[in-house]
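step 4 of 6: structure.
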Amino acid sequence: MSSTQDLDYPQLLFQYNSGFLLTKIMTTACELGVFDLLLESEGPLPSDVIAERLGTSAYGMERLLEACVGLKLLAVEMKSERAFYRNTELSNLYLGKASPKSQYHHFMYYSKTNYLCCHYLTDAVREGKKQYKRAFGISSEDLFEVLYRSEEEMIKVTHFLNAFWSVCGRDMISAFDLSPFTVICDLGGGAGGLARECISLYPNSTVTIYDLPKVVQLAKEHFVTPEESRITFHGGDFFTDPIPEADLYIVARVLHDWADDKCLELLSKIHKVCKPGGGVLLVESLVDDDKTGPLDALLLSVIMLVQTEGKERTPSEFRKLLTAAGFREMQVKKTGKLYDVILGRK
Ligand code: SAM
């Protein structure tokens, strides 16, 4: 589209303006169970039957289903002037809860947490800080106290974190040849979404997941199966407690939660305990050095503003942090997915 046309009809701006509707329509259909019902049903279903089975109004469900067709999340077929709906392949694969690659929890977390915090983006920009108090009426502004405010919430957050690695964990772990590193520690590794990919790709490796004690307890109870014997856990606070010696430290989606001084503190601590010749694998969404994109990384950085003390960083910013922490070499791999990978060597 030429710039004159842009000015006659600013299509791009109208698309941006509807952005919140797109996420709300998709996640409302997820929350009400539309994709799960259609995944289980023998064939396409009419709107009134879907409404009845899911306990909603027929009028509201009809609007929702029509919009989902517009978003290519559902397909529709007219039979005797009646609309019958079925899932598209995309929804079957990624929106039904039962699918192994389901992003249901990922999108629900965006809808229930990120969306609410972003409602206060103006305040976040004015004040330069996270917005949990306004969004949730919770007095704590500590990210992990808020996210882990009950076991139910912890389970949801953990499903959210794991979901993403089910579709691109392998891209992160295979970005560099990690086979020389056999003793691996996944710092802030949560319930092991990435650790699982790591042991499956590198049969000689063992991974210790280091995370807060309550996360470790939850992961052991609900997320890691006994067959995964090459995964062990270590509960602690990586800022105040000792961290185990290893050849490689995976630090995935952790540094973007913290300001530069905390990142440097953690990286320096890792450098001290890392075996000579060992390394640190950072998994983060990289902003281009010229700051022109990619859009996904820039958007994620806004989420960091409303929820954390951190931001998404450029390769140059990571180079500065890694060098200051004592690492001597740094290689960057853009994966083409939401997250990229940096390997720093001691
Ligand atoms: N690395 C995981 C992933 O990519 O799925 C989880 C990333 S999540 C954004 C940050 C993780 O850091 C959480 O699992 C959280 O519990 C952990 N964490 C936060 N503060 C911590 C601390 N002080 N000590 C240890 N783990 C911490």
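step 5 of 6: annotate
 - The chain has a mean pLDDT of 95.
 - The pocket of S-adenosylmethionine is lined by residues 144, 161, 188-190, 193-194, 211-212, 215, 237-239, 252-254, 257 (CB under 6 Å).
step 6 of 6: archive
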